[in-house]
Amino acid sequence: MPGAQVVDLEKQQDVGRSRALRNTLTNTIATSITTTLANTLTSTSITTAITTDPLDEPRLGALRTLFDFSAEQMQQVRELSTSSAWCRHVEDCFQPLLTEQYAGVWPALDLPTPLAASHCWALFRAVCSTVGRVGDDGYSIEEIWRLLATAPAADAAADLTAGAAAAAGEEAGPDHGTQGIMAVFAVLCWGTMLLQPKLTWSDPTVAACLAVHELPAKRDTLKMSFVRRPIPAVFRGFRTALARHRLPPRPAAHDAAVLFVSTINYHSLRTIGKVRLQWVDSMSCHLKFDSRTRSLSLFRFPTFCALTAIAGGQGALFDEVVRAVFSADDEGDRELDGSLQLSQEILMSYRLLFGQSHASRGLGKTLLREMEGQADYDRLLVGLCTQPRSSGVVKKLPNSFWPVSCRTFDDNLQELDSYTLHDDFPMLGSRLAALQEFNLRQQPSKLRDLWRDRRNPLQWYTFWAVLVVGGLSILLGILQLAVAVVALAQSIHPLVSP
C-alpha cells in the first residue's frame, strides 16, 4: 500500500505541474495578445494621423478666397470632393517659391518663411484677396505687389486707390521687388489656369522677364516693363505670342459653322484622323491641335472649371483676363462672362469628344486608366468622359456646369448631334472647327476604316446599303446563272445519250 500512495502522490504532483504550466502559457498568450492589440491600435491611430490630410483647411481657405464662395457654394465644393487634385498640382507649382531666390518675398509681406509647398497658400490667398478687391480698375502687377508689401497679408487691400498704390511704391523699396512681382504674376497664372509661369532662370546675368511654359522660345517672353501695364494687357501680350504658334483664327461673326459630334468625337479622331491626346496644365492650350504631329491638347483639371461654374465666375478682373486671352475686341465678346463661359465650354467639350459616343467612352476609359496612378489625377474626368448622359453620375452634376445653350427648358443637360459654333462654343468654337476640318480631310485607306468611318451617318448608311444590296444582287445573279447552266446541261444530256 505504501507504494500505491507514492504513485498517487507523484500523479498529483504531475497534475499540479501541468496546471501551473498551463496557467503560465495562458498568461503569456493573454499578455502577447494584449500587447499585439495595443500595438495594432497604436499603429492604426498613427496611420490615421498620417493619412489625415492636414492641408484641407488651407486649401479650402484658398478656394474660398479665389472664388469668393458663399456658404451654400462651399457645401457644393465639399460634395465635389475632387478639388484636391488641382490643389496638389498648385502645390507642386509652389516649389520654386521655396528656393533662396524668393526668400525675400515672405518677410516683405510679413508672412512666415514656408518650410513646405503647402505653406505657400498664405501668399496665394493674399494675392487673390487683393486682386478680388481691386476689381477691373486697370491695376498693374507692380501696383498689386506694392499694395501687398505695405499692408498686412490678411487685409492687404484695405484702401485701394491709385494714390495709395503710388505711396506704397515709395515705401516698399526695390530690394525684393522683382521677385515679388514674379510671385504675383505666378499667382495670377495659377488662379486663372490660363498659363503656367516660369519662375526660375539658370543664368543670373540675364535680365528677369515674364515667361510661360506654353511659349518656350526666348523671343516669346515679355519685358518687365509690362508689369506696369494693366493686368489684362499683360495676358493680351501672351495671346499675341500664342497666335504666332498656330492657334486657329476666330471665324467671322456671320460664319454659322456647325460642329458635328460624329466628326469630332474622339473615336472618329483616333481611327480616321490618327489623332493622339496630350494632357496639359493650362486652359489656354485646351483643344489646341498641331496638325503636323496630330496632337490634340486637353486640359487635365476639369475640377477647376467646375469650381468656377459653381462660383458663377471669378470676378470682373479675372473675367477681363480670360477675355484678353480668348476673345477678340468686339462687342459680342465683351458681353460674355469670361471665366464662367470658358469653364462651361471646356466641361461641355469633354462630353462632345467622349461622352456622347459609346466607342469614345470606351477609349476614354482606357486613357484614364493610364492616369490613375498619378498624384494629381482629376477623377471628375471619369464622369465627364466615360459616362452617358442617362447615368446617375452625370445627372448629379450641377446644371451650372453646362453652357446655357446646351440646357433644356428644365435647365438640364441637353446633348445634340450638332452644335452651332457661335451659340454653343463662342470661345472654343474656332478650335473645334479647325479640328473638324482636319478630320474631314482625312480619307480611310482600309476596309476596316471604311466600316468605322461614321463622320457622315447618311453617307455611311448609303454606302453600306448599296454595298449590301448590290452584293446580294450580284450573288443572286450568279446563283441564277448557275441554275440556268445546270438546267441547260440537263436538257442537252438526253439528246446526246443513246
Task: Characterise the protein shown here.
With 498 residues, this protein is mainly alpha-helical. It is 58% helix and 4% strand. It is built from 23 helices and 5 strands. The protein has helices spanning 2-51, 56-67, 71-80, 83-93, 105-108, 121-134, 141-149, 162-172, 177-192, 231-243, 261-264, 266-271, 302-311, 316-326, 331-334, 338-355, 358-371, 380-386, 392-395, 421-424, 429-441, 447-452, 457-496; strands spanning 258-260, 276-280, 289-290, 295-299, 418-420. The protein has a 3-stranded mixed sheet with strand order 2-4-3. The protein has a two-stranded antiparallel sheet with strand order 1-5. Strand 3 and strand 4 (295-299) form a beta hairpin. Helix 7 crosses helix 9 (177-192). The protein is elongated, with a radius of gyration of 34 Å.
Strand-helix topology:
Layout (H helix, E strand, L loop, with lengths): L1 H50 L4 H12 L3 H10 L2 H11 L11 H4 L12 H14 L6 H9 L12 H11 L4 H16 L38 H13 L14 E3 H4 L1 H6 L4 E5 L8 E2 L4 E5 L2 H10 L4 H11 L4 H4 L3 H18 L2 H14 L8 H7 L5 H4 L22 E3 H4 L4 H13 L5 H6 L4 H40 L2
Parallel strand pairs: 2-4
Antiparallel strand pairs: 1-5, 3-4
